[in-house]
Amino acid sequence: MAAGRARRLLGSLWIALLLGQPDPAGAAARSGSQSLLTGSLVRTFTPFYFLVEPMDVLSVRGASVIMNCSAYCETSPKIEWKKDGTFLNLVSDDRRQLLPDGSLLINSVVHSKHNKPDEGYYQCVATVESLGTIVSRTAKLTVAGLPRFTSQPESSSVYKGNSAILNCEVNVDLAPFVRWEQDRQPVFLDDRVFKLPSGALIISNATDLDGGLYRCIIESGGTPKYSDEAELKIIPDPEVPQNLMFVRQPSSLTKVSGQSAVFPCVAVGFPTPYVRWTRNEEELTTEGYERFLLLAGGSLEISDVTEEDVGTYTCIAENGNETIEAQAELTVQVPPEFLKRPANIYAHESMDIVFECEVTGKPTPTVKWVKNGDMVIPSDYFKIVKEHNLQVLGLVKSDEGFYQCIAENDVGNAQAGAQLIILDLAPATTGPLPSAPRDVVATLVSTRFIRLTWRTPVSDPQGDNLTYSIFYTKEGINRERIENTSRAGETQVTIQNLMPETVYVFRVVAQNKHGPGESSVPLKVATQPEVQLPGPAPNIRAYASSPTSVTVTWETPLSGNGEIQNYKLYYMEKGQDTEQDVDVGGLSYTINGLKKYTEYSFRVVAYNKHGPGVSTQDVVVRTLSDVPSAPPQNLTLEVRNSKSIMLHWQPPPAGTHSGQITGYKIRYRKVSRKSDVTESIGGTQLFQLIEGLERGTEYSFRVAALTVNGTGPATDWISAETFESDLDETRVPEVPSSLHVRPLVTSIVVSWTPPENQNIVVRGYAIGYGIGSPHAQTIKVDYKQRYYTIENLDPSSHYVITLKAFNNVGEGIPLYESAVTRPHSVPDPSPMMPPVGVQASILSHDTIRITWADNSLPKNQKITDARYYTVRWKTNIPANTKYKTANATTLSYLVTGLKPNTLYEFSVMVTKGRRSSTWSMTAHGTTFELVPTSPPKDVTVVSKEGKPRTIIVNWQPPSEANGKITGYIIYYSTDVNAEIHDWVIEPVVGNRLTHQIQELTLDTPYYFKIQARNSKGMGPMSEAVQFRTPKASGSAGKGSRPVDVGPDYKPPLGGSNSPHGSPTSPLDSNMLLVIIVSVGVITIVIVVIVAVFCTRRTTSHQKKKRAACKSVNGSHKYKGNSKDVKPPDLWIHHERLELKPIDKSPDPNPIMTDTPIPRNSQDITPVDNSMDSNIHQRRNSYRGHESEDSMSTLAGRRGMRPKMMMPFDSQPPQPVISAHPIHSLDNPHHHFHSGSLASPTRSYHHHQVNPWPIGTSMSHSDRANSTESVRNTPSTDTMPASSSQTCADHQDPESTTGSYLANAQEEDSAQNLPTAHVRPSHPLKSFAVPAVPPAGSTYDPALPSTPLLTQQAPNHPVHSVKTASIGTLGRTRPPMPVVVPSAPDVQETTRMLEDSESNYEPDELTKEMAHLEGLMKDLNAITTA
To answer: Of 78, 831, 1354, 1388, which has the highest C-beta tally within 10 A?
Structure first.
């Protein structure tokens, strides 16, 4: 059926073209009464309209009312009536009946206080069957209320010839029913006696006959209501003049165009006043104008008012002695009028049409549309466009009928209608029609448009001459719309103006010259959803709650589209362009701190998760008034005579009125008295004459402004003295007695003395001046003034000056003088000397003090004048940084807010008056470093190619490093929520941005964090980065996997050989065999040598004690033995089998040290936890038993790992110690402890104590110059219990304080530190011999010591692991060697040494050392070969 309808529609396109319409979906076709000559399709528009429409009616109770209505149509219409929008049932109504012409008759109007059935809005409805319905304008029936007086006439008297007014105020709807009686006889109205619209009676040019008793009567049906009687007396003219005054002033009026307006104006006085009028300050001539009538007594009547009559009308009464005036505004309202009425329209189904309607009126009318008597509700298919026009989309047959545009405002309403005819379609011509288009698809779907494409029908594969129509509708709605392709052969179209998230049904019909063909299969397409934002908050209201606050309320938006999160309230002072806002959580808010009596606009925007919604309309409210907040301005006093003083003033400054100024209050008193007199004046008068004062008396005056809220602040007291006697002011003053001028460069000082005759009033003096003529400019000054400076003159110019005294009569005789201004020759100020000796003293990371000297000051550098200094500074990074400046009045300035670790340049200049110096020489200063304030960035983790258990961590330095980054610590764990001390750590030197981590478990998620540090401490950690190791087969087993050595290996700097980040390159297999054999030979030789010495014993107790002490004090503050032979500093790298000297290249900041940790539980050595010494317990920087939580939970990292404790305190930190484990290729029974930073070498050779002297550690200069990372390899030697307590743990009581943390504060900070697991590795097999310091060298307490990790033999009965502290130490702290095992007291150590099996003299050790050195050289030669 739809396809057939479409075929008929497209077949009638020529009808649309005949009507001048581009296509069926375009604008509506319109015509007046023309018909379409299309055979059976001919239909004409039917005239159907109202001849008479009801008008507004004012009635009284009991009266009968007719509401007129008459409609025209060829077929007689049926007339019905609506009251207040509801049809009246007139069949059974005995009071209301329908007259034959359609009018409504209401008999005996009913109206009472609680029952008002007849009052309301009436509308006439005319209907013609099978044609349509039209409605008339609405007419208001008003019933006058019960008669009552709001004011009644009062007795009065009037001078003969003057005007009298008798009030009789009633409510507006009763005013037409008021009449007057004089002495109980009706008063006849004429030009002299007339009644105002309010009911008041005005009698002008009163005569004796006008005297009598007056009363007014209300006759509104029923019993008349009489007012009280009032007597009017006529009295003869007075002998003396009487003040002029208004007995009735005009009041502002609002009238509807066409009505009459009366401005009453009644003035009395003697002589009898004459009244005239102005409009907008232009004289209003009533003669010759029919619409303007000057009524008797001076009132103005304007008949048939129009918008041109709007303005301000002023009544001016004058009688020759004085003049008074009063103003009133006239506002004119205009009922709606049609500028363009809707036109009749022919159309076809599925077309879109527009009814146009343009209206005007004042206030601006609102427009609504009615179809066949029913209101048109805007929807997707009926839309109001361009404010007043009605658009109908996708016409269907039922849309046919009469449409009316109804315009309405406060003063009236009007209607205009048009007819819509939907034509039947012409049959198609004979010939083949196209088949259905193929493959209709939506190629682009958006929220509000869809693009459709299709293929040509099978019947016409070329399709060049085919046009297409696309029919579409919402699913479930039978109202189709049509869109045509723009040119023949086009096979795509874009449908616009759709609704979001809505299902539409599309079908396409092809058309050739014979007509439309078959329709395609319907295609359903849903538009995309749109982000749903809140609608506007309804019912926004604002009211002033105080003079400075406004409360705004609103309701939840109807189209919330999701939960409202909050509201934003915007407000703005009227006349301003800057809007302020405040966030609100509820549905109301009170804004405080507003200006008093000021208009503000408010609007509200609701927010949901998608963002801000639609704003409400602005609401405007004015804050409440208050008393003025400032006094009046420019109060001046003018002594008029011996008894009066005139006051003049200006209103308070704008913005301080706090309301409408209603008047002013004047207070004055004699200066000699404290009591004062108050006098108030109303209105906006800005002057007042105070009379009745005493002669020759000084009075003080002050003025305050008034609002309805009260009195504002008053001005300061200002005094003036009345004259002793009334001086003569019948003539002008005489000439001033003298005039003197003193010229300067651009000004002339004028001085004078008053006239000699003191009996003539002088009000002031007039000074005239100009080049060559004194009349160019004139200045008036007060009569008390005796001199004046004329400013802004030209240098070297000849001026003529005149001086005249004046009073109210005029100006007196002038006195002349001339003067030549001085030439302009001001030498340029010489520049000052710039400050010298500018110095920058760095105080902190963001503060530098700048000091300088000023050679232009005396030797004591004391500033006694008004000079000041300007300091400027900048940094060159980035290059375009601008200077910042500051002023100082002393010889130093504290510059704050600087960036850490940044070089700034400073310079200073001095300014004194208009003289300034050049900028001084620059001084430079670099702020101290600060701990990093941002974490490393761009942290990425990738798997190493070919090595699934090895990952590479990359990162970038922190954006806010605040200093040179000295190291990084990588934390990783399989549990992202684990405590940070349970994460494994990997330290990295500061110049590296990548690091390898090996031996991870396959197919396991790891989390990584990185922390940077500089010389000041640790920065924040980065966010955790997750990485899952890949799945792989055939990888090496856990713990037995060889070292990953990459092909791109480069030897590390300084001999560092860490497998984590510096992979070792593979060695040649033949060379490796040689190395292994060599190592075995050397090991056997050394074991033999050591075994020989083990058989020797010394019984001397003193030698034992001395040897023991010398072997333990390597980490204490004891002097070394300068006679000891310094053994060579050598490393034996078993992995490469070569000897390297320890590099001593200077680096003032050793970055990282290595602290290897045992790899598995067999590597961990038990440690005694007993603490026999209270001092040791108090000084240790590590915390007691840690074995219970020293196990790592990481899969693939089995076995126990000791924790490394990392204290962070407020003291400036020192470089962190990092662990670089090195895999060992040798057996675990032959290695040494080694250290290159303040650590003695401790080695255990199968039950032997270290055989060479190690009396003291390296000096700090040696430590600072070493770039080698510290390598502390834990021992895995098996030792008897008797030697498990080594001399390294022995300390004298005297040295304890110097060796450990020196105060309780440090102890507390160490006991609350986070700990982190250190990644374990194979121990390094190496020989390291410490340098013997120079004689007398000791530790510097101000320098840090580097704690190292030590381990003990595994056969100790207590299995517990201690950790060395890695972290920051205070600058002022003494060196702190960290000793892991608990040290016994002195007596225990001595007893153990006595039981020891072997002890050696220094000379024996020296010989063995020399022998060992020879062996080393031989080994080195073998390796080199």
So the answer is: 1354
